[in-house]
Each structure stands twice: as structure tokens, then as C-alpha cells.
Write a structure and sequence with these properties.
- The protein is an all-alpha fold.
- Helices cover about 60% and strands about 0% of the residues.
- It has helices at about 10-20, 25-40, 45-80.
- The relative contact order is 0.12.
């Protein structure tokens, strides 16, 4: 997607494919959010790169949250706490993404 030798429409299709795999706000919601953050990425190469950077940054943050949650759960289970504590935020919960 970042290869400037490819036509813009191919690169936009690649971004849409990425959004099919990671869509925190649903497919169309995520595309709308990226357009709001980065600009009209369907027509503007710089906006496309900003959209990619925003998507990558959000996914990296989510993956870090998943890892921290997994470490906390393993630790809790070793201590006999088989159920997450009340208020413990689960990054797998998609409800947080619709905010």
C-alpha cells in the first residue's frame, strides 16, 4: 500500500483489505473514521499514507492492550482469580470500539 509505483486505486483497495482484518468501528465506520482523520484517502496519496499510519498506530495500541491484559489474566489465574475483576477492561470487548 505504501509503494508509490502502484496505482492509487490499487493502494486504496489494499487499505480496504487491511480494514477488513482490523475494523474497530466496523468496516464502513473504520473507513469513515480514517477519512475523518486523514482526509480523502481515495483521491489523495498523502491522505492514504496518513490513514495507513493511523490504522497501524491504533492496531499497535490495541495489540499492546491485549498483551497487557493477557499478562494480568495469567498472573490473576496463578493467584487463584479465575474470573476477571469487576471493572477490569477487556480489550477483546468490541463495545469499547463503538465509542
Amino acid at each position: 500500500m505504501a509503494d508509490p509505483a502502484l496505482p492509487l486505486r490499487v493502494r486504496v483497495a489494499a487499505l480496504r483489505s487491511c480494514v477488513q482484518l482490523y475494523r474497530p468501528f466496523g468496516f464502513h465506520g473504520t473507513l469513515d473514521r480514517l477519512a475523518g482523520v486523514a482526509g480523502p484517502f481515495q483521491r489523495d496519496e498523502a491522505a492514504l499514507l496518513r490513514a495507513l499510519a493511523a490504522l497501524e498506530a491504533d492496531r499497535a495500541g490495541w495489540l499492546a492492550e491485549l498483551e497487557a491484559y493477557a499478562r494480568a489474566r495469567r498472573s490473576g489465574k496463578r493467584c487463584g482469580r479465575r474470573v476477571p475483576a469487576e471493572g477490569e477492561r477487556n480489550p477483546n470487548d468490541r463495545a469499547r470500539w463503538s465509542v
